[in-house]
Every structure is written in structure tokens, then in C-alpha cells.
What we know:
This is Xanthine dehydrogenase family protein molybdopterin-binding subunit. Keywords: Molybdenum, Oxidoreductase. Residues 11-115 form the Aldehyde oxidase/xanthine dehydrogenase a/b hammerhead domain. GO terms for molecular function: iron ion binding; oxidoreductase activity. The chain has 677 residues and is α+β, with helices and mostly antiparallel strands. The protein folds into four domains: 26-115 and 169-260, 2-Layer Sandwich (Aldehyde Oxidoreductase, domain 4), CATH 3.30.365.10; 118-167 and 265-377, 2-Layer Sandwich (Aldehyde Oxidoreductase, domain 4); 378-424 and 531-677, Aldehyde oxidase/xanthine dehydrogenase, molybdopterin binding domain (Aldehyde Oxidoreductase, domain 4, 2-Layer Sandwich), CATH 3.30.365.10; 430-528, Aldehyde oxidase/xanthine dehydrogenase, molybdopterin binding domain (Aldehyde Oxidoreductase, domain 4), CATH 3.30.365. A seven-stranded mixed beta sheet has the order 3-5-1-14-11-12-13, with helices on both faces. It is globular. The N and C termini lie far apart (53 Å). Bound molecules: dioxothiomolybdenum(VI) ion. The site of dioxothiomolybdenum(VI) ion (MOS) has 11 residues, from loops.
Amino acid sequence: MNRIEGRVKVTGLATYAAEYPVEDVTYAFPVQSQIAKGRVRHVDAQDALAMPGVLAVLSGEDPPPLASGADGELALFQSREVAYRGQIVAAVVADTYENARAAAAVVRVDYDSDDHDVSLRADHPGLYKPDHVNPAYPTDSEKGDIEAGLAEAATVVDVVYETPVLHNNPMEPHAALACWDDEGGLLVYDTAQGTTLSRDTLAQVFGLPKERVRVVSRHVGGGFGSKGTTRPQAVLAAMAARVVGRPVKIVLTRQQMFDVTGYRTPTIQRLRLGADAQGRLTALEHVAYEQTSTLEEFAEQTATPTRIMYATPALRTAHRLVRLDVATPSWMRAPGECPGMYALESAMDELAYALGMDPVELRVVNEPETEPDSGLPFSSRNLVGCLREGARRFGWEHRDPTPGVRRDGEWLIGTGVAASTYPARRRPSKARAVVEDDGDFLVQVAAADIGTGARTALTRIAAEALGVAPERVHVELGDSDLPEAPVAGGSMGTASWGSAIVRACEELKSDGKEGLADTTEEVRGDAAFSRHAFGAQFVEVRVSSVTGEVRVPRLLGVFAAGRIVDPKLARSQFIGGMTMGMGMGLMEETLTDEEFGGFLRRDLAQYHVPACADVPDVEAVWLDERDAELNPMASKGIGEIGIVGTAAAIGNAVYHATGHRVRELPITPDKILMPRF
Ligand code: MOS
């Protein structure tokens, strides 16, 4: 299907959070901390208040009240402590955006500054073991004897891989427009990946009953996780609107987004792999070191994919975290699986070379019968099928494994492969389906379409459930007043909302007028199977021996992700993820400012993401898989698996091209050229 909202989007008619016409609207602009750690001693708002159009300056001097217990990133002005450079410490509200921004520049903030620490190290004395990792996995796992497995191995690989801070860069900046009504009810147009969650969070932060809060996010211009949890702009807009008694709009600048909308934690990952002469793993250990803030704990599940990938008698995974004077890391497309599989799949490639074995065959040889960590049966697992189909399509059989020997003028040529995986989950959701006066069907669910095509996919699911043409189905989403639904995240939106829609449509068919569904009960019993999507990424690179530039003329992903609801929408999700994976492999990196705290490279001029010219040939295909264990659609999630494995496949191809193994992302020209000097 074509996107239902495609026309309104490309003609500019789709209304995003900051674009709702609201009378009497005012504008807020944040003032951000200039220090990385310490306390705000005094905020002098006098000059700002004298500027044209200024209505108020909010700060810890006279903090507008919030309910206690709010997330530290959202408890604006409630404490004088500064947790990171860039934290919001004040805000100006004015009649225009320009006046608010100009006045914010003259708010004077004095600090008592402490020494800060913003550097992740694998030997940091502050490393600790969190209680669990995101969202609720055990922190560590251990099966068998790692040391014994390594001791008996014919070949051992012991390597450290590092990934940098990465930032989501959705096209639509984080924005909120907040209005209070005369009865104390709050309406927020927000850039949320889930209006139910955003409503619940705002209700909690402001101490309101849920019924008094409404969040609307009809169109969201990308999120990738950065809009999955409520971000400070929504709280600030609502707080400021209460103070000035008028609606308040706030749109973060791209630079501010880098500071306060979350980021992917940097990782240091040590992998130890042992294998016998046939390539069968005798031991597999994956330890991840990551950071969080002093405000909140976010422990990314980096090593968890290693628990499900390969058969081995000894398997150990662990996560260690350190609290630094940084913003709290958060979700970015495939948190955990993405950086973790980068390291695991790179190390597997190193093992293949050490064994003199084809990297596809190494993975096939280590295919497990059941989930290696838990022993649970897989609901379905077609990794080998993806590898074989990818190898066939890519022309893998003609590959000469020797590194650094193919050359076309200045260009060194290589190919690489990596596996990918992502959990197939679902969460409880409600939905409503009714017959409208004209005989068409209205389907309501507080789902979010953040650019994924969810609105269209859900229309198709409802049409199939009702046995009518999609044109007769109208899906309404993006509003917390609709039936409660989980966030667009964790690649489980379609599975969660779609299940509820199927049930609501079934009930509508028997009732004749209305169907209401709540899947809370049927989602229990998730523990019987290991449920994951799988895939294989194949990459060709050309590396300039003169400049060190890496180009990717071919990128192929083959996925086994359950039944594909709509091929056109799915392809977009897969190739979008793969393109983002190329960014991770070659370009994306936010530098931490060691001296002053905060981040360097806070704009798209310096934080590079792939553009069209970088992806001349990116293709995604899939196996015919139906997973009846998961949901009524027999589908798995597809939003995140495309990014998983791509960076490893690129790094493996760079090694094949150059004979040089880069173990720190991104693989920028300096890292290609430096070894020669
Ligand atoms: Mo995605 S990181 O689950 O929004």
C-alpha cells in the first residue's frame, strides 16, 4: 500500500506538534547549563525580563511546582544541582520565538562548579552491576565454564570493540504545544512515540489524574527512540503555560536535541571466543561497559543478543555501568542489539579468519537447536535460510577470502557479512472498531505513526480482519483519548496494536455495530518460546587507498521476520534501518567534550548521516515466514532489525578490502590511513 498520509505529508498539509493553530500562543526557549557538574548559585533574570515581549523567566529561583518522583530529566528547576552540561536550568517565555530566544541569551546564571567526569573507561572505579538491563533483562548470564572452554579451544579470539555516543536525528525536532483549560485540564501537542505513555508521564509529573491530560501526536517526523519517553520540552511547555496563563509552544533547536533528547550510550565491549578446529564454539563471552547519568539509570542491553545467537557449551554475558556527569542515555533504534551485534558479528568474522573458514559457514556450523542461554525453543528461526539466500543473491560463492588483494585503481574492494537479530515482542493494547453512518469502518487506537507507515499497516490489518477493501477502513491514531496503546518502540507497535485491532474487528463482525478489544489477558504466557526475527547483511565496500574514504556500492539484507504485513512499507523499514546502520558504520559519532562536559558536534554539518548518494544500491528481501506463536497476523517486528548487523558487515568488508581491522566505530578515513604512518 501507499502511505495513507503520504499526500498530506508531501504537500505540507500534515499538522505536526508545533503547527497547531492555537490562539494567544506564546513561546519558550531554554537556558542550558554551562557547567558539567555543580550547583546553580543564582539566576539573574532582570535583564531578560526587561527585554521586549518577555512574559516570564522560569528557574530554580522560584520553581513552579511539580509532583515529586518525576524522572530526573523531567523534574525541571526542582533542584539546583547540575548533572550535565546542557541541562535546562532556566527558560524564557515571550510573545514571539525570537523574543524568547533573544532574552534567553541574557539570562545570567552563576554556578558553583565541581570537577566533572564524562569519560567512559573499562577500568573506571565507579563501574557497577545494574539490577537489570533495558527493558527488564537479567544483567548477567552464565552457562558452562568459559575458562575451560577457552583452554580447550583450537583457536581463541580475544578482542575489544568500541562504539561512540550516537544521536537520533529525526527530521522533526522535538516540540510541544501546551494549553491548560479553565478546569485545570492539560492538552499537549507533543512529538511522542506513544500518546498513552506521554499522557501518563505528564499526569504523574504534574500530579493530575490521567483523565485531565490529553496528548495529541497525529504526525511525528521520526523518533527512533528519542521520542519514546517524554522529553523535557513537553514538561517545560506545560509548566510555562501554567505560569503565564497562555498556551506555550517550544521547539528545540537541533543543537538542543543533542543535549536533552537522549543518545545511544558509548560502549566498550570485550569478546572472548574459543572454537575447535571445525569452527564449533567452545566458549563465548561478551562483557559490555556503558555509561549512565547521575540523574537516572539507563542500562543498555548490549550483550543480550549474544545469549541467543550461537550454540556453545560455555556462554557468559555481563553489563557494567558507570554514572558520569552526562545526560541520561536512552533508546536509539535497536538499543542493545545494534551495538552488541556490531561487536559479536565483527568478532565472529575475526574467528572465521583465524580458523581459515568462510564466515557464512562459521555461522551455520554454530546454529543452535534451542536458545543457547535459556534452552527455550525458538518460535521460529531462519537465520541459516537468510545467510544462504543472501549468499546466493550476493554471489558469495565466488569470493576469494584473502584480504587486501582486490584493487581497481586507487580503490581496494572487499565484501563482508554479518547476522542480525531482534526480539519479537508484543504488549497489551486496546482498540475499538465501529461501523460509521456511511457503512465504512472506523478503527481507533492510541498508536503512533512516527514515519513507519503504521497508519497504513493497521488499515490493512483491519481491512483483512473485516474482509473489506482498505479504502473502507479509516484508522484514527496519535491521541491519548483513543483506546490505550503501547509506544511505537521495540519493533512491537504493529504486533501490539494490530492484535488488538484484529480482536476488535472480530468482535465488530459478530456484534454488527462495535468491537472493543483489550489484549492484556492474551499477552500473558510469553515465556514458552524464544521469539526473535533474524537476518543477514551482505556488503561490498570500496576503500580509497589515497583518502581512506569507504564507499558502499552494494548493501543487501535478507530477513526472516514473520509474515510481512505490507511489502512496500516493510521494504522502507528494512532499508531505512540498513541506511542508518551504514551511518553507524562509517559516519555517525558524537564527541564528548572532556574539558567542559557535554557534547561536541551538535549539528548535521558535523554529525554526518548517509544521504542518497551514499546508498546507491541498498536492497532488502525476506523469506516467507509465518510465526503463528506471536500474534494473529503471524508477523514479527521490522522497525529495528535492519540497523542490526549492518555496521559489522561493513567493518568486515573493510577488513576484506584492506587487511586492516578497525575496532572502533565509525570507520572514518583517518582510521584507514593511520596504520600506514
Ligand atoms: Mo525504538 S529505540 O524501540 O523507539
